[in-house]
Amino acid sequence: MRADSPNSNHYDYAVIRVVPRVEREEFVNVGVILSCEASRYLEARIELDEARVLALAPDLDMESLRRHLDTIPAICRGGVGTGPIGLLPQRARFHWLTAKRSSIIQTSPVHMGKCGDMPAIMEHLLQSMVRLER
Known about the structure:
single chain, alpha+beta
């Protein structure tokens, strides 16, 4: 596909990480945020493997962690009921979600690519970055 093809979209993504003890810098990949401005696409999917997280931090409050992780897809969807960040333009929400933080929930650096099928690339990213091969 040519770079200027109308079916060619440039996208940005970041991997969502749980860093139970920030000072140790150990983390578990738990999701992906995927953005394509040309397609007006912004989605986050979370696949929390509790056993992997608890292996790093057995006393972690998983209920609280799930609640905080659930806000990421909500902010991506945006609109009424998602707070002030959810009301920002789509690109601003992506940048806010992927801003560098020193907290239990962080994201990888933003990476980019090109594709025409955003749901397929989301599935590929989850498979390659989040899910363990079994």
